[in-house]
Structure formats: C-alpha cells, structure tokens
Amino acid sequence: MEPVAGAILMPFLLGSAAYGSYLTSTYGATANYWAGGINVVSWIAQFVGHGVFEGRAPALLDNLVQALFLAPFFVWFEILFSLGYRPDLKKRLDKAVEEDVRKFHDKKEK
C-alpha cells in the first residue's frame, strides 16, 4: 500500500477495532449478530448492485483475497482521491481503468 495513505488509514482501523471490542464486551453476542447481519445485507446489496448497474459479477467471484483485502483499500483511495490526494496517481489509475473497461466491453461484444 502507498505509505502515506496507509498511515492516514491506520487510526481509523485501530479505532474501529477498539470500538468493535468495546461493543462486544458491552453487548456480548448481540453486537456480533448485528455485525453479521449488516455484513450479509451489504454483500447482498453488492451482488444486486453489480448485477443491475454493471451487468457482471463482483470481484468476489473472481478472487476472494482481492475482494476481502484489497477492495477496502480501493474504497479508501477513492475517498482520498475525492479529497484531492495525489491527483497524478488518480489520473494514471483512471487511464488504466478506462483501458481495462474498454477491453472488457470489446471482449463482451465478441
């Protein structure tokens, strides 16, 4: 991961872990049931969203590691880019993504 982006993310991850531990110690299994339910609803929403708006399966079906570990970093970078973080990097990534999308559509048309 890009070191500055990782350093900015670290307090959020540590705070989330601490808050999750607090919720579990305070509310016991109820907190875990809520967390599990929210995860299930989120995964369903992801499948529906990908199917309806993109017309293809989410990355989860291609690569589980990528879906579970790299996708959250993708979202983090999208947040940082929207705040003006490293515009040169965003420009390069946008160009690469456009090229991959074009290749996907060309392959799909065949």
Taken together, the total number of domains comes to 1
Strand content: under 5%
- The overall pLDDT, averaged over residues, is 90
Structural class label: mainly alpha
Total of DSSP H or I helical runs spanning 4+ residues = 4
- The residue ranges in which pLDDT falls below 50 over 5 or more consecutive positions are none
**End-to-end separation:** 36 Å
- Sum up the overall morphology in one term: flat
Radius of gyration: 18 Å
What does the largest sheet look like? none
Roughly what percent helix? over 70%
The H/E string reads HHHH
- Tell me how many strands there are: 0
Itemize the secondary structure elements and their pairings.
Elements: H1 3-27, H2 29-54, H3 64-82, H4 87-109
Q: What can you tell me about this protein's structure?
A:
By secondary structure, the protein is mainly α. The chain has one domain. Helix content is 85%, strand content 0%. The chain is built from 4 helices and no strands. The radius of gyration is 18 Å and the shape is flat. The model has no long low-confidence stretch (mean pLDDT 90).
